[in-house]
Amino acid sequence: MSAPAPFEIGIFTFGELTRDAAGKPIDALARTRDILEWARVADQAGLDVFGVGEHHREDFAVSSPAVVLAAAAAQTQQIRLTSTVTVLSSADPVRVFEDFATLDLVSGGRAEITAGRGAYLESFPLFGQRLERYDEYFEDRLGLLLQIRDENPVTWNGTTRPALTDAGVWPRPAQAALPVWLAVGGTPASAARAGRLGLPLYLAILGTPARFAPLAGLYRKSAGQAGRGPGRIGVTSHFYVEETSQGARNTFFPHYSQYIGQNMPRTGRLDRAAFEDWAGPRGALFAGSPAEVVEKILWEHEVLGHTRFLAQVGLGGLSQAATLRSIELLATEVLPAVRAALGR
């Protein structure tokens, strides 16, 4: 029997442009340069995965993950490169596959796709799509993406784009099969779909991590009912680490409160008591010392059985120096401790 794969840890970003106290957003040019430096440092420090997500809003710098990841590929050596996420509902699966197959060639076989429906809806009117077909778009286009991955040429007929007949889709990736993960925010049907399809799953943890345990169980049950082996589960969480717990929380609180206020208006800006609760031992926010982060990852692993953890970094206008130090600590203090504890 082969040894289990090592527990993987990485970072990701949406390239958010949180406004400062004067209401001025971070400059998109500066943020893009920051993001590429995060990728270089993560790669050099030994992290496993680097991801960028997709938004089509003025307060985010990244609308094309494949382009940013290709730039990161040219400046890194080992780290895997993934979208977090590709909004497949409003994208052409043929173009998505071509872009990420090209990224795979550029990076020497390090590309992955994370497909999702997206937490925001701005891409639907932008690309001329109707919101009432939200689920239909994703189901239809995910099926085509997976068929393109597994077959070439491809013959396909669906409801959301023109049919394909014996169509070649090029180039093909360096990897034998381009990895496709599904991102789930809390919908049972989405977790069950990933299990039935045999796709690895990301759980975007907000709120209480323990409430996602039934989704992980449903995912594994659905895979078993479909005759598939247990797939991989990844967890994504908001993150900041410093050498001491109090230092991390004092540094991060004003930035994170600003971030939540801007991106989750129904929640509003966090007060300090709510922040401390979210960052507590059973909360979803990772903000503390390396030892605290290790302990929380291991607890979540007991609850969810995940084998990949992606930390969302650079939130709320946090300084570049602080963000880079946090990335380095994640790689040099957290990752080896988690692997040692899990015997991997």
* Total count of helical runs of at least 4 residues: 11
Query: What is the overall shape?
Result: globular
DSSP strand tally: 12
Give the topology string: H per helix, E per strand: EHEHEEHEHHEEEHEHEHHEHEH
Q: CATH topology, what is it called?
A: TIM Barrel
Number of domains: 1
Q: Which spans of ≥5 residues are poorly predicted at pLDDT below 50?
A: none
For the record, the CATH architecture stands as Alpha-Beta Barrel
**Biggest sheet, open or closed, and with what strands and sense?**
8 strands, parallel, barrel
Folded structure, characterized:
This protein is α/β, with parallel strands linked by helices. It has one domain: Alpha-Beta Barrel (TIM Barrel), CATH 3.20.20. 43% of the residues lie in helices and 16% in strands. It has eleven helices and twelve strands. The chain has helices at 28-45, 65-73, 93-107, 123-126, 134-150, 188-197, 213-225, 245-263, 272-278, 290-304, 320-341, and strands at residues 8-13, 49-52, 80-83, 86-87, 111-116, 154-156, 164-167, 180-184, 201-204, 233-241, 286-288, 308-312. The longest helix is centred in the last third of the chain and has 22 residues, at 320-341.
